[in-house]
Design brief:
Structural class: alpha/beta
Strand content: 25-35%
Strand order of the largest sheet: 1-4-3-2-5-6-8-7
Distance between the termini: 38 Å
Number of domains: 1
Order of helices and strands: EHEHEHEEHEHEE
CATH architecture: 3-Layer(aba) Sandwich
Helix content: 10-25%
CATH topology: Rossmann fold
Low-confidence stretches: 6-18, 195-204
Amino acid sequence: MMRPNMIVPGGGRWFAEGPSPFQTVLAMVGVKPGGVAVVFGAGDGALAAELAGITGLNGRTLVVDPDAAAEARVEKAAASAGRLVEFARTRLASIGDAASDADVAVINCQLGAQGRAASEIVSEAVRILRAGGRVIVIEGWRRKGLFGFGRSSGPEPMASDAVCALLAEAGLRATRVLGEERGVSYIEGIKSGTTGTTGTAGTG
């Protein structure tokens, strides 16, 4: 498998001004400066760019997505925000050596749309975590633009209790719904080992 590509901003600003419109999701994900975040599913790339603003140059934000057009979306979002983001085009259920020892894996691909592959994607997210690392599932439809989701079409989101069950079946502990906002649910599970810092619900 090809190694991830580093997306270096070719323009835009290095420092964001004012509060982030992603305040809620950033609070739910809870990644720290210098941390490693892996995003399963590019969406429009904006979420990864925001996470990269926190992980910074001493950390790592990686997006994995099988879509050939996803890299361009991530590159555009990273350049607009002035952030460094890595991208690997690969199956979500099998990302190989693209990542390991991640602090948080964000499943941003609508598990309800993945059919039988949903459990495989969750298992892969768990595999690449460090002990005490966290999986955050973002599930639901909201207005197009924030995560690249559109509400007009597509399968129904997976119910939060079903997501919690998938996380538990994959070996995660303390599975719970962190919060819900405008049709989007945030569900967390923690990998066994040293206790990780859990996310905190916030408001947008």
